[in-house]
Amino acid sequence: MELRRKDLLGIADLTREEIALILDNAAILKEISTRSIKKVPTLRGRTVVTLFYEPSTRTRMSFEIAAKRLSADTVSLTVAASSAVKGETLADTAANLEAMRPDLLIIRHQASGAPHFLAKRLKCGVINAGDGLHEHPTQALLDMLTVKEAKGRLHGLKVAIVGDILHSRVARSNIHGFTKMGSEVTVAGPATLLPPYLDTLGVKIAPSLEEAVAGADVIMMLRIQLERMGQMFFSTLREYSKQFGLALRHLDLAKKDVIIMHPGPMNRGVEISPEVADGPHSVILDQVTNGVAVRMAVMLLLMGDKA
Amino acid sequence: MELRRKDLLGIADLTREEIALILDNAAILKEISTRSIKKVPTLRGRTVVTLFYEPSTRTRMSFEIAAKRLSADTVSLTVAASSAVKGETLADTAANLEAMRPDLLIIRHQASGAPHFLAKRLKCGVINAGDGLHEHPTQALLDMLTVKEAKGRLHGLKVAIVGDILHSRVARSNIHGFTKMGSEVTVAGPATLLPPYLDTLGVKIAPSLEEAVAGADVIMMLRIQLERMGQMFFSTLREYSKQFGLALRHLDLAKKDVIIMHPGPMNRGVEISPEVADGPHSVILDQVTNGVAVRMAVMLLLMGDKA
Amino acid sequence: MELRRKDLLGIADLTREEIALILDNAAILKEISTRSIKKVPTLRGRTVVTLFYEPSTRTRMSFEIAAKRLSADTVSLTVAASSAVKGETLADTAANLEAMRPDLLIIRHQASGAPHFLAKRLKCGVINAGDGLHEHPTQALLDMLTVKEAKGRLHGLKVAIVGDILHSRVARSNIHGFTKMGSEVTVAGPATLLPPYLDTLGVKIAPSLEEAVAGADVIMMLRIQLERMGQMFFSTLREYSKQFGLALRHLDLAKKDVIIMHPGPMNRGVEISPEVADGPHSVILDQVTNGVAVRMAVMLLLMGDKA
Question: Are residues A201 and A227 in the same domain?
């Protein structure tokens, strides 16, 4: 079976079968990164361009490593010190990049929908590496892979997602993904950080962290974006941490074999206590490892068949 | 035939035969970028260093992609957050880079003549990727390749170059190139933006955009550098656009099969209207595609024979 | 013989045998950079990550070129526009990088001890590319290789190190290295720039530049960090230059075949006169060339045997 699409823009428009296909491929490709020679020639001679309008360490690096382990050539553009300054439109930048005949464009942009806008205009494949408050599909895929590895399945699991749901593209993509795969998703967070459309997404809203994690198989803590503090979405960090920070005592409320996830970077002591982050239930670093595998799978499925 | 020089510094010092040689090689190498495996082993094990003292998306990327498609290794340095801050001289930076044994140094620098200064001191090849207000030879080569593809020849064509001629290294390199290859070049722009030396270069000066494009086979619009506004070279953007912005109605004055060029990034609605930029006469994206091919050709001709 | 360690953190903890092993390997690997095809497949499929928290042109580039000439894949992170901004701890950044399964992490950090902190926590190899005021071991290794090439030995040589000893990790690493290999090290500099622990390191302190270089086989000038001026470690540049700037006349005091070294970037006319820097005794560019060779050797010795 193959992925019959040229782009990966969001989880919302993937079928269950497509998600399963990507996860299955990722599980196989993961082995490559454990070898001494971490490289297969599959995508030799393909050109992958990363175009990041927001700073990022791990996501850009994860994509770059994934591409190199498949032997693709990579070119990295961080826009700020470049043409964005000169006032060129996104469509023109993209059309120009495409004219250099890349096979894949990986874009992170502060505007929701930017990758979709490009995908429609470009012949080359486009991967959304995070667009505004909208989606971050490879993050949700790596999260689902991590859960599937730990639990053997996604169907029938209780998944709690806690924190700033409103501003989190990670939360949105994961809500789409886990509900689609048959998990039961419950969210919790300050009332000002719960978006109004939540009821349309098939998730439950818990009034407190405690009630969200009760009986959970999976607890996913979101990063508090400190730069939103001034916007008064919540009173103080201390207050936030007290109400919605995950501590050891909360794990007793969850299933005995609960796993703890965080997309990183973590604010230790704010949304998650160090004891939990580094404890035996944490799969936070597995998420990062699986990020490379999932991105290899997506690249292979989007580019491989065109070989 | 081969290129008997170690550097590409400007169009002014190339012979007609050398220009033809580069264009012929570029036309052949262009096919590589249309393959599924866009890579030939020709320059394997060569080290190409890009050293950019000015920000750039497309030029640096075009050179990097060109190098990678020939299997060269690339190292990119954007100077600002680096030793330039520490006050090292350009000669010392370059001598140090050379001591690491690169095969080719690609430099963009705000000072006219910087690449020539380096080329004299360094054993490795130097490509000028834009020096101050002086030259940008690979841009002119890709422009000539684009015109030759569209028209089958360069000799006897009427080429109009419109805009800020004074500050444009693209204009300078193209004036040298097209006049050398037998085209007839006419320029137009605000009087404050026409340099005094134009008459020595064998170009005609038209008093208006309309007269410049009359009967033209090729219209090349230059980018208005908005940062020069404060310097009062022209009154307002609106005024500039009205007088020297290319609109659909101007195309009727030109040859029926006129082609429209722009080196990018475009200020849509200022020097060029979107209808023209995206219309059937536009070869703007072909220019970008040809940029990779021309840079592959130059790299191959400068480095290939030394294998 | 092989290097039985996973990290290179400092010269202080290397044995004489280990230093000799690295230098011997570097001397052999140096030849690769003189070939037309400057590449061997030895580290194909290994992932090398450079993580620089301080700007650098030459060191990062030297490591990148070394890695590429051994066919390793490289990913470069300059931290500032990335997660450092977001407040992630160094340990978390590193754990995340490691989860992507790199083989080697090359780190430069403003905090002394940062690479050691990481090396203890990470399974992958760590190379210290400069940590605060502490060590810069590959710089000392390339300096020792350069001296050994010029003099045939390190034992019994008189080495003068002149300048801002207090703030120089280059000086520290070299003092460890040269004393360990049997050279006799003398330092000189403004009294405010001589650290109190010097007597414990087995070096002599000379009261003046003149006395330091008297009879020297090797003179190593340190870079004056102009940003320290405001901190009043010395009165004026002019005064500094007069007292501790190396000029032609000083060479007469040294051995006839003295060699002059500088780690770069140089402040010409401050700590070293142009006549000396560019004169026949200078081996400053050899140092840079040897930097690539030494880094290839270290990478090979740290990663090669695990193949």
Answer: yes
Q: Which residue has the higher pLDDT, C199 or C290?
A: C290
ipTM of the complex: 0.92
Q: Which residues of B156-190 are buried (b: 16+ CB within 10 A; e: fewer)?
A: ebbbbbbbbbbbbbbbbbbbbbbbbbebbbbbbbb
- CATH code of residue A245: 3.40.50.1370
Residue B5 lies in a domain: no
Would you call C47 and A61 a contact, using CB atoms and an 8 Å cutoff?
no
Q: Which residues contact B281 (CB under 8 A, 6 or more apart)?
A: B251, B257, B258, B259, B260
Test C101 with A266 for CB contact under 8 angstroms: no
Distance from CA of A7 to the nearest CA of B (A): 17
Q: Give chain B's domain count.
A: 2
Distance from CA of B5 to the nearest CA of C (A): 17
- Residues B114, B163: one domain? no
Q: Which residues contact C181 (CB under 8 A, 6 or more apart)?
A: C16, C19, C20, C144, C154, C155
Q: Does B104 touch chain C (CB under 8 A)?
A: no
Neighbours of chain B (3+ CB pairs under 8 A): A, C
3-state secondary structure of A193: helix
HSE-CB at C83 with a 13 A cutoff on CA atoms is 24
- Does residue A225 sit within a domain? yes
Using the beta-carbon criterion (under 8 Å), do A264 and C92 form an inter-chain contact? yes
pLDDT on residue A83: 45
Q: Are residues B193 and B297 in the same domain?
A: no
| pLDDT tens digit sequence for C271-307 | 999 999 999 999 999 999 999 999 999 999 999 754 4
Measure in Å the smallest separation between the Cα of A115 and chain B Cα atoms.
18
C88: which chain A residues are within 8 Å (Cβ-Cβ)? Answer: 264-266
DSSP code, position C120: H
Q: Are residues A104 and A147 both part of a single domain?
A: no
Tell me the CB-side half-sphere exposure of residue A84, using CA atoms within 13 A.
12
Q: Please check whether residues A166 and A212 belong to one and the same domain.
A: yes
State the average pLDDT over residues C39-59. Answer: 92
Distance CA B12, CA B21 (A): 16
Angstrom CA distances, B154 to B29, B73, B217, B245, stand at 20, 34, 10, 25
The proportion of chain C whose per-residue pLDDT surpasses 70, expressed as a percent, equals 93
Is residue A7 domain-resident? no
pLDDT score, position B232:
62
Q: For residue B161, what are the β-bridge partners?
A: B187, B220
Owning domain of residue B159: 137-286
Using DSSP, state whether B180 is helix, strand or coil. Answer: helix
Query: What would the DSSP string read from start to end of B234-286?
Result: SS-HHHHHHHH-B-HHHHTTS-TT-EEE--S---BTTTB-HHHHTSTTB-HHH
Same domain? For A214 and A173 the reply is yes
Shared-domain flag, residues C52 and C107: yes
Q: Is A46 on the interface with B (CB under 8 A)?
A: yes
Residues B49-90 have pLDDT tens digits of 999 998 787 899 999 999 999 999 999 988 764 445 556 888
Q: Are residues C110 and C63 in the same domain?
A: yes
| B3 in any annotated domain | no
